[in-house]
Amino acid sequence: MSTSHVVVVGAGIAGLAAARLLARGGARVTVLEGSPRIGGKLQVSEVGGLPVDEGAEAMLARRPEGLDLVRDLGHAGALVHPGTTSSAIFSHGALRRLPQGQVMGIPSDLRALAASHVLSPAGLARVPLDLVLPETPRGGDVSVADFIGARMGREVVDRLVEPLLGGVYAGRVEELSLEATMPSVAAAARSHRSLIAAVRGIRAAGPAPAAAGPVFATLPGGLGTLPHLVAEDVTAAGGTIRTGTMVRELRRRPDGWRLTLGPARAPEALDADAVVVAVPAAPAARLLAADVPAAARELERIDYASMALITLVYAASAFPRLPRGSGYLVPAVERREVKAVTFSSVKWPHLRDRDPGVIAVRCSIGRYGEEHTLQRSDDDLKAAAMTELAATCGVSELPLESRVTRWGGGLPQYNVGHVDRVARIRAAVTRQPGLAVAGAAYDGLGIPACIAGARAAATRMLEFVNGRGESSHGSDGQGEQAESTRS
User: Fold this and answer.
1) Are 24 and 165 contained in the same domain?
2) Which of 174, 251, 479, 482 is deepest in the core (most CB within 10 A)?
């Protein structure tokens, strides 16, 4: 059993998951977190007496890594699932049901698409041309808008694909990578001339809805409780977690790595045999600049979007009719401030059961390149959310309580070329013995994808400190993509 010292920089879910595996594998682990708290984008607090997440509220249940972690922590029996995942899109002035048969907004059932009324008559008429158009040439990576627009027309991109991808990345479809954000679609489209046929093939190959089980899962106290459960397991296995400890420098030494911590006036040196860098792209680039400049240059090219989540808790009487779906999305072309609304008390029965007399709602504001929309007071953002709910749901009362959470630079952008960029980052990193990277900047924003990357990084570092590192340096083992990570 190794007694080597492995340092994990960053105490988000990726860093904590990596630390847990390292500690359970026998390494002496130190986790360093620059902020005063652990959890990264996973955070929960009470609003109106309800525990409502301030960041991600669910993890994909049809991908195993997140559920496996909860099970290994001994909390599988506590998992809860949505009461409904039925959602809508605000299009052409009204809320409309998301059409059946779509994959990330790409339609496969033309009758369901027509019945949804999401598209205009002209936009609807353009879609079936995909079935007869010649193959769209595609060499390397292309943007989501360019490829899907060429096959089905711009209205499908603007009113179906953009709002669904926007809910994940808050990005621009003109820049988002087809290969990175929709890997299964990108792969299927290489073997089908028609994109409709490709999506039909994806759906046919998947499990039947009844057999697939719930799509999402969370914990009754909010998904923001998960990092604390992982942290407890890390410390129980002998690991150390230090918050409020900024890593200012990372440098290679002949026998490992040296990290410089704390303020410049009182620096602290910490030596490690191996290091996992599990922070966003910009701080990762800063740490790797001296000894892994090729990786640092690529990391600097990963942009981030900012957003805000406005949580409002209303008396149930504020709604003329109880919302029936989990929420709705708003395409950018509608030019409304709010881009997504989640009826949390409807989506999650455990919240409704805690207080049937109130309804908690989360409204999302902010897209990439529109940071000016967030340069307003919390009261202004709250007013925008209230105005949205009054217009679409007829809400006629003021909220009982509210909360505004800002995520500045919170969502990495998987723009065209992202897959190759990540490959170059990993190629440079894996040439450095005892170094690995993990986190949302690479292979997926969802909880399962971050955990998968953390597992691969921790496995490589355990192999290294146990004397098998040389054989592992040529393979990163972290090839999962973003499409199946949505939570």
Assistant:
1) no
2) 482
Given this model, what pLDDT does residue 302 score? 98
**Half-sphere exposure of residue 129: CA atoms within 13 angstroms, side-chain side:** 16
Residues 107 and 196 in one domain: yes
CB burial of residue 377 (10 Å; 0-12, 13-18, 19+): exposed
- β-bridge mates for residue 363, sequence order: 310, 341
Which CATH number is 330's domain given?
3.90.660.20
User: Which 8-state DSSP code applies to residue 175?
Assistant: T
Chosen domain end from 383, 412, 441: 412
Mean of pLDDT values over 298-325: 96
Q: Over 70: is that where the pLDDT of 341 sits?
A: yes
Q: Do residue 286 and residue 426 come from a single domain?
A: yes
Residue 76 falls inside a structural domain: no
Alpha-carbon gap, residue 451 to 15, rounded angstroms: 9
Integer Cα distance of 246 and 234 in angstroms: 20
Q: Shortest CA distance to 340 belongs to which of 361, 360, 363?
A: 363
Check: CB of residue 195 under 8 Å from CB of residue 106. Answer: yes
The C-alpha angle 36, 260, 270, rounded to 5 degrees, equals: 90
For residue 22 the two structure tokens come to 């390292």
229: part of which helix (H) or strand (E)? helix 226-236
Phi (first) and psi of residue 17, to 5 degrees: -65, -40
57 is a domain residue: no
- Please check the confidence at residue 271 and state whether its pLDDT lies above 60: yes
d(CA 98, CA 329): 9
State the chain's maximal CA–CA distance in angstroms: 69
> Within this chain, do residues 296 and 427 fall inside the same structural domain, yes or no?
yes
Instruction: Give me the pLDDT at residue 214, please.
Output: 84
| pLDDT one-digit tens code per residue, 207-220 | 655 556 788 999 99
The closest alpha carbon to 258, from 244, 274, 246, belongs to: 274
- What's the pLDDT tens digit per position in 38-67? 999 999 999 999 999 999 999 999 899 999
Q: In whole angstroms, what is the distance from residue 147 CA to residue 163 CA?
A: 17
Q: What's the whole-number mean pLDDT along residues 432-449?
A: 97
Predicted TM-score (pTM) above 0.85: yes
Q: Quick one: tokens of 263? A: 């303020």
The label of the residue with tokens 């059409």 reads: 99
On whether the CB atoms of residues 148 and 108 are closer than 8 A, the answer is: no
Q: What are phi and psi of 359, to 5 degrees?
A: -130, 120
